Amino acid sequence: MSKNAKLLKKLMLAMMVALGVVISPILRVEGLCPMAHFINIVCAVFLGPWYALICATLIGVIRMTAMAIPPLALTGAVFGALLSGLFYRASKGNLLFAVIGEVIGTGIIGAIVSYPVMALIWGRSGLTWMFYVPSFIMATLMGGTIAYLFLTALKRTGMLTKIQNRLDTKTYDYVEVESPEAFTN
Fold first, then answer.
1. Which end of the chain has less Cβ packing within 10 Å, N or C?
2. Measured between alpha carbons, how far is 164 from 171 in angstroms, rounded to an integer?
3. Using CA atoms, how far apart are residues 162 and 156, in angstroms rounded to an integer?
4. Which three-class secondary structure state does DSSP give residue 29?
């Protein structure tokens, strides 16, 4: 990977974290943060599973410290971000699988992991193992739909592959890459 691509990946990660923190309050109620799932999926497709995991972790920590959000900011994001990227890669670039990875990772795994965190560590009473599953699945479907439509539009125009190529991320569609100067103008 070139030095330039490494820098661009770090810049894209920083932009995704900043965007995730800023747009996360849209439609947010406890246990429902669809814009976080949008960011998870877009980051997973643009940068890969490990960067998506880092992005979700950073967004969660910032939201918890700066916005007094409960630990759901982490438990409701990190599993989906990672699985979104892994499913996207395993499916050789199928955007629907990126969304499915987010739904399984957050909607099911993250929701179930949230129970002991919120009940035992955070002190919430009246929760069950499945308490967060409906709201987490609904949020992932909302954010996943937005991400799918956004990424499909980028893919249709060839921009998704150009972005991935520029970031030196694994691509699955061949598109002629323009000169690097085209991205700086």
1. C
2. 6
3. 12
4. strand
